[in-house]
Specification:
This protein has helices at about 5-25, 25-35, 40-70, 85-95, 105-125, 150-180, 185-190. By secondary structure, the protein is mostly helical. Helix 3 packs parallel to helix 6 (about 150-180) and helix 6 (about 150-180) runs antiparallel to helix 7. The longest helix has about 35 residues, at about 150-180. The relative contact order is 0.15.
C-alpha cells in the first residue's frame, strides 16, 4: 500500500515547530531569572543548559530529520527543490555562480578582510583616549560575559547559534515547507 507522500514531512514539520515552541515556551521568564543571577557558577550552569538544550534541538535535530527523510545529502549539497529559486535569485541579481576553483580564493579574501578590519579596530580602540561606547539593541546587558569562563561559554553558544540557525532555519524548515507546499520561494520566506 502506498502512503501519503505529505504525511512524513507534515509530521516532521509539526515536530520541529513543537520543539521550537517548547524551546521558546518560557524564554522571557527564564531570561528574567537569569538577570538576577550574581554568581558566575550559577550563570555558567545556565549557559551550559542553554547550550545543551539548543544544540540538541537545532544542531542534532536537523540531521535526524534529514535522515528520516533520506535527505542527508542536503547538508553538503543544495537540495533539488531549491535549485530553481537559487537560479532565479542569481538571475535577478545578475550574478553567476562562483566557480568551485574560486571558492578558496574568495574565502581567503574574506578572511584577510575581516582580520584586517579587526586589527584596525583594536588599534583604534587602544589609541583612543576615551572608552569605546558599545551600542546595544535590546536588553542584553545580563548576557554579556563577566569573566573568561563565561566568555568561553558565550563563544560556544554563539558558534552553536550560527550552526543551528543555518541547519534548522535555512535548510530543514524550508525543505519541509517546500515538500508540503511545492513552492520553494514561499518556503524560504516563511521559514
Amino acid at each position: 500500500p502506498s502512503q501519503d507522500p505529505m504525511l512524513l514531512p507534515a509530521l516532521l514539520l509539526a515536530a520541529c515547530l513543537g520543539g521550537l515552541a517548547w524551546f521558546l515556551r518560557n524564554a522571557i521568564a527564564e531570561y528574567n531569572a537569569f538577570k538576577l543571577l550574581t554568581h558566575t557558577a550559577d550563570r555558567q550552569q545556565r549557559y551550559r543548559r542553554w547550550l545543551l538544550k539548543s544544540f540538541l534541538l537545532f544542531v542534532c535535530g536537523t540531521p535526524v530529520c534529514l535522515a528520516i527523510l533520506d535527505r542527508m545529502h542536503a547538508i553538503v549539497a543544495l537540495p533539488a527543490e531549491f535549485t530553481a529559486v537559487s537560479h532565479q535569485g542569481r538571475a535577478a541579481r545578475g550574478t553567476a555562480q562562483v566557480p568551485r576553483g574560486d571558492v578558496p580564493g574568495l574565502g581567503g579574501g574574506v578572511l584577510i578582510g575581516l582580520s584586517t578590519s579587526l586589527l584596525l579596530l583594536v588599534l583604534l580602540v587602544r589609541r583612543s583616549k576615551t572608552k569605546l561606547k558599545v551600542r546595544k539593541i535590546g536588553d542584553i546587558d545580563a548576557l554579556l560575559p563577566r569573566n573568561a569562563a563565561e566568555t568561553l561559554w558565550m563563544a560556544l553558544i554563539s558558534v552553536k547559534a550560527g550552526l543551528g540557525e543555518e541547519l534548522c532555519f535555512r535548510l530543514l524548515l524550508p525543505l519541509l515547507f517546500t515538500l508540503l507546499t511545492g513552492n520553494a520561494l514561499f518556503a524560504c520566506v516563511i521559514a
